[in-house]
Amino acid sequence: MDSGIKLIIGFIALIASIVAFSQLSEVAKSNPVKTPSVQKLFYEGTIGGKHSMSISLDRVGGDITGSAVNTNNELRKLKGSIGKEKTFLLHEYDNDQMTGTFEGRILENGDMRGIWSAPPGGKWFPFYLHKKPRIFSRVKANSN
Q1: Any idea what DSSP says for residue 86?
Q2: Which end of the chain has fewer surrounding CB within 10 Å, N or C?
């Protein structure tokens, strides 16, 4: 094949590659991958009006995870979800054992109100938690 024809074919291939790359870049810009944002939430309040509770939550969309520190400075893990109507269901765990359930609503002012119950629902207490900008808690260290 003549070197002039090879040069023309190579030039056409280069132009086609540039056009294809440009089109792919435009598609990527119009359909960006959305990274979910993490909303950090902190609350303090009481369960049953006398047991203190501090809660730290991470909200990603409708999923909520976090931790709670109770009156005895015991750390509990939290996992649950929140609905469109700002209603939530959070399960409380000590290691892998469920120790309680928070069910309630986030109020207009950002506070949380609802019912805490122990599995299998034998005892229950109302709770009210105030939204805080930041939380500092002391957790009882394990003596193991």
Answers
A1: S
A2: C
The CATH number corresponding to 39-132 among 3.30.420.40, 3.30.230.10, 3.30.200.20, 2.40.128.120 equals 2.40.128.120
Quick one: tokens of 36?
């979910």
The half-sphere exposure of 41 on its side-chain side, counting CA atoms within 13 A, is 22
Could you say which DSSP state residue 16 is in?
A: H
> Among candidates 60, 85, 80, which has minimal Cα distance to 68?
80
Quickly tell me which residue has 């939430």 as its tokens.
41
Alpha-carbon distance of 13 to 11, in angstroms, equals: 5
Residue 114 neighbours by CB distance under 10 Å: 19
Whole-prediction pTM value?
A: 0.68
**Tokens, residue 15:** 């132009």
